[in-house]
Amino acid sequence: MIGILGSGGFGTALAVALARDGKPVTLCARNADHVEEMVRVREHRRRLPGVRLPELVSPTSDVRDLQAAEPVLIASPSQPLADVLAEFADILSGKTLVACCKGIDPASGLGPASRIERAFPRATPAQLSGPGFATDIAAGLPTAMTIAATDDRTAADLQRKLSTSSLRLYRCTDIIGVEAGGALKNVIAIACGMAIGAGFGESARAALMTRGFAEIVRFALARGARAETLAGLSGLGDLALTATSERSRNYAFGVALGELGLSDPAVTTEGIATARAVAGIAKSEAMRLPLITVVAEFLCGGLTLAQAVESLMARPLRRE
Q1: Strand partners, 74
Q2: Which of 94, 214, 264, 310 has its C-alpha lying 20 to 30 A from 55's C-alpha?
Q3: How far apart are CA 157 and CA 245, in angstroms?
Q4: Secondary structure, 3-state, the chain
């Protein structure tokens, strides 16, 4: 039986896809009223309206129901991940734990699977990432993503357990690269959305995607990742989806910023915290990440949109 901790859109979509392929899933949520509704109507009305939960999905609000699950997919947002791990430590500490969130923690500078490894030395951490919208996965549309674990045997086992007829997983052992690609593409997506929202055009967006991808690679390699990982689904593939679709929260957030010409730090978007965390790392390690740094400064209110553009366009000319 597969466990999923977190019943947001992505966690529920994975539960639907797995159960549709005959794999029993325990879907654990904190809100008992929400669980009661899912049990009663067999649907997540707010995030996936019209998508029926297969009978093999068992919603619960009791985390102890995950004791028999292996693996457990952690589908909570990245920012409260530390609280989730601490709250459920007695259940999770010795399991195979697959992080399904994306982001760089401002406090530790680590991605989700690396944070799991630090919190639970006895656990087996893994990272699921790549270009996959919850609505597409729940609808059974063809989707491909990456599953990463330090050991290839573990990655292969997870690949077999979590792949379905509509969700194809590729495996790798480069957790750092998969974490970096999934996290930093959100920052670049914000920048691309800003370009479109401000009316700078699709050529500008293409330039931001390309130069942004170069910064993702530069950051990941400095942390020990492999370049081929970033050229795959969890790097370039995820960036291509997130930086062009208005179904992407980060891209849509950027579009709104570009239209308004100012930032709204009250909006919860994964790319905001990641931009600030990575810009801090770049400064402390003297790493050249001009686009990510400018996005972070803009989000913190340190630059206007015009100043952000001027800062990037006035940089010294250099070899690509």
Answers
A1: 5, 99
A2: 94
A3: 32
A4: CEEEECCCHHHHHHHHHHHHCCCCEEEECCCHHHHHHHHHHCEECCCEEEEECCCCEEEECCHHHHCCCCCEEECCCCCCHHHHHHHCHHHHCCCEEEECCCCCCCCCCCCHHHHHHHHCCCCEEEEEECCCCHHHHHCCCCEEEEEEECCHHHHHHHHHHHCCCCEEEEEECCHHHHHHHHHHHHHHHHHHHHHHHCCCCHHHHHHHHHHHHHHHHHHHHHCCCCHHHHCCHHHHHHHHHHCCCCCCHHHHHHHHHHHHCCCCCCCCCHHHHHHHHHHHHHHHCCCCCHHHHHHHHHHCCCCCHHHHHHHHHCCCCCCC
> Could you read off the pLDDT of 136-171 as tens digits, one per residue?
999 999 999 999 999 999 999 999 999 999 999 999
Query: Annotated catalytic sites, by residue?
Result: 185
Angle at alpha carbon of residue 187, lines to 128 and 240, rounded to 5°: 65
